[in-house]
Amino acid sequence: MEEGGQGGRGEQLGSGNRETGSGSEAGREEQQWAGTPSLQSYAAAPAPPAPAAAPAPGPQNPPRAPAKWGPWITLGKVGVTLLTLGLLYNSVFAAPDTAAAWRALLATALGGAGRGPVLGALALVPVNWGLEAWKWHRLARHLGPVSFGRSLRGVLVGLTLGFATPNRVGDYAGRILELKSRRVRALGAVFLGRYCQLVATVLAGVAGLLYFLLTFYLADFPAAELGVITTAAAVCGLVLVPLYRSRLLVAALGLWRPLRRFRPALAVMPTYPARALHAVLAISGLRYAVFCAQFLLLLRAYGVGAGLGPGLAAVAGTFLLKSLVPSLNALADVGVRELSATHLFGLLGQPALPVLSASLSLWVINIALPSAAGLLLVPGLRVWRSRSA
Question: Which superkingdom (predicted)?
Fold first, then answer.
């Protein structure tokens, strides 16, 4: 508005000077510019139709490629989910008397000696999501002032919105809605928090899967063992590069056109100092330890007798395999995690039904129940934000 006002005053002064000039000079100017269209006429006149471009060989309209392949990608994810659930059903529920055995197992775990471990796993749920809110609070306050209560609210709302969205992208929306400004940069902050959690999962999960590979698959192949150990160490090192050398990640996004749209959001990552990254990664490690403790408590409640070391390796491998498989929503995660857990614990000689029960219980107490709590906050989100503004 200020630029428009200054331009208008400039035009008035210019017109006044022209009026005070000689009449002959004004007449010559009128004759000179009579046949020349002014800037206003260019702005008011409709744009001439563009000439028809000659048809070029090859595929047209490249921006429509994601819409073209989007349904096929979704169909592929649905197929993987159905296949996973089918394999899970065939390995567990196809056995006779499974329902009766499951009812007896649940009665023993919830009403007998397993009640203590179950209550212990439930007591860790607020600790789990409290750590996640603390991590998000440390990331969000880098963008602007935000309270821990708003951070916790954003985490719970994001968990609810991500419950039914592909790869839980609704988690981004729930957290960003709680911020009053800099929402584009907040996308990068949410990604940074999730990536730190992925780093903790990969570091522990690679060690867990390495135990199973060296123990059950490569025990008689020393050369292969050395190659697998070297590969595991390289993976653990490479996963830290985008975290501590995020400028390389932002620069790499510019090399491929479909990924360039993420550069404005991820450009905030290099602004976080190394000390902040250390803190967020440490909080992610603590939260990962809480996850493992909950899983081990539930396994004990359902009578799984694996040792502590092999059990931790199986839990870490389960979390890693679940994280590597893209899912449609939180419900699809159930099949991936349960199939991985039953396979890894099966290598340790543990029956599938108790492992499946523990894994399902972990999903219920860590995802389903907090999502229901966040659902109570979603309807009043807009009203709450308008009152706090």
Answer: Bacteria
Q: For 254-272, what is each residue's pLDDT tens digit?
A: 888 888 888 988 999 999 9
Is 130 a domain residue?
Answer: yes
Assess contact for 356 and 342: CB atoms under 8 A: yes
| Residue type at 204 in one-letter notation | A
**Cα within 13 Å of Cα(164), Cβ side:** 4
Domain membership flag for residue 76: no
Q: With b meaning 16 or more CB within 10 Å and e meaning fewer, what string describes 198-229?
A: bbbbbbbbbbbbbbbbbeeebeeeeeebeebe
Residue 315: Cβ within 10 Å count: 27
Cβ atoms 310, 212 nearer than 8 A: no
For residue 325, give the 3-state DSSP assignment: coil
The residue segments making up the domain with residue 275 are 101-388
Tally of structural domains, the chain: 1
Domain membership of residue 47 (yes or no) is no
For residue range 51-104, what is the model confidence (pLDDT) as tens digits? 444 444 444 444 444 456 667 666 665 665 566 556 555 655 555 545 555 566
Residue 174 lies in a domain: yes
Question: pTM of the prediction?
Answer: 0.72
- Tokens 């309807």 sit on residue: 379
